[in-house]
Structures are given as structure tokens and as C-alpha cells.
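Quick one - first record:
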Amino acid sequence: MAKKTKTSRVKEKETEWQERVVQIRRVTKVVKGGKKLSFRAIVIVGNERGQVGVGVGKAADVIGAVKKGVADGKKHLVEVPLTKSDSIPHPTNGAGGGAKVMIRPAAPGTGVIAGGSVRTVLELAGVKNVLAKQLGSGNPLNNARAAANALSALRTFSEVAEERDVPIEKLYS
């Protein structure tokens, strides 16, 4: 039998998580000697199977900022309960900074109808049929955080039934 090498395991882990850079900004800090340049990267990390995270990284170079953003995104993962039709269980709202996001489930075949960073968050979470609307701010970071906040508020029927100490069948009646 062939022995598995360390590199094959690392490759499997890398393919599980997808990362998308939403924005890279050049930011400056005014210091005694002048202006200090650095980069801010907004990265969304997800496995398309119900886990997604929004991360921000700052560094002197773009590659370093993206790496820090990926690490930050993995620290702030959100579990998303998906239905059989690859949608969400119920409508939800989320807020992040000045941004508000409204997310609603959609019928199979609808696709992801959302804009900007909210679309990226939903796609990397593995949601295939959903309607979303950004309200308020157009800031990509705040909208991504608002979408993650909305997805974290989702609950399944079984979770609700368990909280209420009621059988699932009673929820429908």
C-alpha cells in the first residue's frame, strides 16, 4: 500500500475551503515621518456545505493581508442550516454597522438573487436558491457582516420544537 504523504492531506484541506476576496483597499496611517501605507483585504471563506465566515486582514503587502483575512474568516465561522432544496428554512434579517440585509428562501431553480458581498456570502455558504436585498449602507464589509449575522439567526424546525418542548408534528398544526 502507498503511504499518504503530508502534501496530499494539505491539498484536501485547501480544496474544502473556498476563499473569495471581496475588496482590497490601500489605507494610510499618518505617522511622525509621513504616511505609512498598508492594505486591507475583506475575505469571505466558506465550504459550500453550511459554513461561512467574513474576515478582514491588514498588512504591508496584499498577499499578507489576504492571508490574515482568511485566518480571520475561519475564526468567525457561522453555521447555516440548509433545506433539502438548498435554500434557507425561513426569512431573516441581519445588521452589521449601517448595513441591513433581508434574506428570504426561494423556490428550487431560482438561484442566488443578491448583490455585492451578500451574494458571495450566500454562495460560499452553499445556499443555491435565495432572494436577498441590501438596505442602508453599500459598504461591502458591513453588508457581508450583516449577511453573516442574518444567516447565524436561522433556526431549523427541529431546533424550534426542541426549544419549545413540543414534537415537530405539533409545529405545523
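second record:
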Amino acid sequence: MTTRDRILDAAAQVMRERGLARATTKEIARAAGYSEATLYKHFQDKQDLFLHMLQERLPPLGDVITMASQRAGSGTVRGTLEGIAAAAIAFYAEAFPSAASIISEPRLSAAFRAGLKQRGAGPHVPNTMVAAYLRAEVGLGRLPARTDPEAAASLLLGACFQHAFLGHFDTRPALARSDAEPAARLVATLLAGIGADPDAEDSGDGGTG
């Protein structure tokens, strides 16, 4: 394992336990077994480290959506969206504790938003990517022409975020099940709401109502 990987693993552990606002670079470096100077050889600052930790140590979301977008017109819309939803639930469940600590600190939040903007990243990106996928499926006739891609993407990812958020407060067995189960229910409800025909999707014909 490389020095960079050890630092990222330590950052994920410390930030998960203490939250970003209370996680210092000194503490992260100590947990990794290195000096702060070594940490700064690999990352510009704590925000830079946090962003890379999100990208490389949390369940993949951006990559899953990118791959899904490339599948427009193949497979089933239902299956593709279920994969996106399951990935989103897993990502939000892991990212929420650290993200919440950012929002609670105004100056830290402002600095982090600026860093995300500079990198062309941010919480809006998954919505934009999912909306682009849905728009492509509408263009191919596999979703109803009246579908609002932006609204549908927001409804799906918003529901995934809420499910992940509630999982931090509710320890009932239902919330401990595989992310695939709630993902399937959310997608089924979304498709029914926009008037997509599940049977037509399974046969690859898509609804065009």
C-alpha cells in the first residue's frame, strides 16, 4: 500500500469518527503513521484530502452513473436506474456524517464549496448526470415523452438521500437490508409516476405515452 493510500484510509477513518470539522491534518497524519509534512506532499489541504477521500474511499457513485449513461438504449431503464439508486444509497450513507460536519461550519462550508466549484464537482453533479441519462432514454423512446428528466433525477436521488439519512437514526432491521431492495421500490414508484410501462421496458420497447 502506498503512502497516499495509507493517508486516505486514515482520513476516512478519522473523518468518520470525528467529522470533517474536528478532524485535523495532524491527527490524520498520526493515524496514518506519518508526519503532517508527508501529508502535504500528497494533498494541498484538508479540503483537497477530503475531496479525494470522497472520490476514492466511498462507495462509487459518479463512476456508476457514468457507466449507466453509456448504457442508454441497452438493457432496461429499470435495471439501470436500480443500479444508480443502490449506489446512491450506499454513497450517501457513508458520506453524510462528514458532509454534515461541513455544513455546520459556515467558513469551512464556504471554502469547501469554492473548492468543489473550482474542480467542477459538487452534490448537483449526480443529478445532472442522471437527468442526462433519462433525457437520452426519452429521446430513444424508452421513456414517455412527457418525462421531466431533471425532476425525475431529483426525485430519485432525493429519495435515496433521505433513505440513507434516516438510516443513521433508525436501527430497525428493515434499514439493514441490501440497498438493492429500497432501490428497486424507489425506481418502480418513479417509473409508475411518469407513466413508463415496466413490461415494455423489460422487452426493450419502452413507453412512449
